[in-house]
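Hello,

Our lab assistant flagged a job as stuck in the queue for most of the afternoon. It eventually completed. Since we weren't sure the result was trustworthy after the delay, we are filing this so someone can double-check. Below is the sequence as submitted and the structure that was eventually returned. Let us know if re-running is recommended.
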Amino acid sequence: MIRRTFNQVLTHSILKQIPLFSKFSDQELSVLLERSSVYSYNKDEIIIMAEEKNTQMYVVLKGQVKVVKISVDGQERVMALRHTGNCFGDMGMLDGQTDSATVIASEPCKILMISKAVFDDFFLTDRGALLRVIETLCGRLRESWLFHSIIGNNDAESKIRATLAHYSKTLGIRDASGVIINASFSHQSIADRVHITRETVTRVLKKMRDQNEIEMVERRFKLLPPFFDRFEKSELYKSLGMPAKKP
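-- returned structure --
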C-alpha cells in the first residue's frame, strides 16, 4: 500500500458519477477530498483483513477488488467484486463490528479512503445523502441474493450468461450494435465469482464468440443482440426475473 497524491479534478469527476456522491456540490466534494486520502495497491495486496475492526469507507477510483472468505486451508471463496465507482467497508464502519470478509486487490488499483468522522459529517447530517447510503446498501444486498441464486444453478453456461447479463445492466454502456460492460473482467475473476473453473469460463466464452454473441472491445466484453435473445429463452432468466440491458 502506497499513499498517493492525486489529481483532485479527475477524482472529483469520478465521484460525480457515483450516485452516493453525485448530489454534493463542487465545494462539498472538494472539502471531502481534502479530508480524505488515496492509496495505491498492487495485485493480490490485502486492503481489509477479516475479523479486523474497520473505521473507514473505501471507494474504488481505479481497478477492481474482490471480497473473499478464506477457509482454514487457505482457499478463497469470492463473495463479491467491486469495480471503479463501487464502495466497500462501509457496513463495518457503520455498525462498529469487525469485517466478516477479506478484501484483496484483484488488479492494481487506487482507493479513496474516507474516515468515519468525515463520513458522519457529510452523510449523517443530510437526509438526501443518508437515503443514498440506504439505497447503496439495499442494492448490494439485492446483488448478493442474485448471485446466491446464480451460484446455486447447476449449469455453468447459465451461470456465465447470468453474470454477464447482470453486469450489462449495472455497468453497461449501449452503442449502435450492443452493450459494452464498462469494467475489465478476466476469465479467472468470472470463474471466482460463480464458483466454476477458469477453463470452463474460457470454453463457454469461446463458444459465445463463435456464435457472434459477444466480442471484446479494449479488454471489455461487448454483448451483442444474439446474446440477449438466447439468454431470455433460458430457464435461469425466467427463474431470476432479471432483464438484461438489451440494446
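-- support follow-up --
The delay was a queue issue, not a problem with the job. The result is valid. The mean pLDDT is 87. The CA atoms of residues 158 and 235 lie 9 Å apart.
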